[in-house]
Amino acid sequence: MTRKVFYSFHYVPDVMRVSQVRNIGSLAANKAATDNDWETVKSGKDSAIKKWIEDQMKGRTCTVVLVGEDTANRKWINHEIVKFWDDEMGVVGINIHGLKNTDGNVSKKGNNPFDYINYGSTGKKLSSIVKCYNPAGTNSKDRYAWIAEHLENAVDEAIKIRKNN
Fold first, then answer.
1. Which pLDDT tens digit goes with each residue over 106-127?
2. CB 56: neighbour CB atoms within 10 A?
3. How far apart are CA 151 and CA 120, in angstroms?
4. DSSP secondary-structure letter at 2?
5. Which terminus, N or C, of the chain has the lesser number of Cβ atoms within 10 Å?
6. Residue 162: phi, psi to the nearest 5?
7. How many CB atoms lie within 10 A of CB 127?
């Protein structure tokens, strides 16, 4: 069964890296927003952005946070993570800093976005439960291959983790 996922990411610096992950095709993903669509959504108030996110989340079982250099602790990334977790859906992170962008450049590894979100009233960080994978490999091709091989399993595991927590 193909899992339906929502990809959460920092649009401007990472959209090309995200496109590579989407093109793996092993998961059914939310429709990618075009630049024009996203600009229209952003021009609305916070309520318009929240509605857009909720509409994109319908029918999904997990959010895959594609972690770039500046993904962690962004307002809407945090909102998406919390919303999925609170709605009892899977949450997982995959670092994409090692994938090349359109200029052929990789970026620095970003912080774990789950380090910025508390788990209920426990005082623990969500990162103590939710996994954020750093793909193995020494170059973009190797890291892409790792993601292609392990993405489905990471999503399945995230859903199990959520059910148990």
1. 999 999 999 999 988 888 999 9
2. 19
3. 27
4. P
5. N
6. -65, -40
7. 17
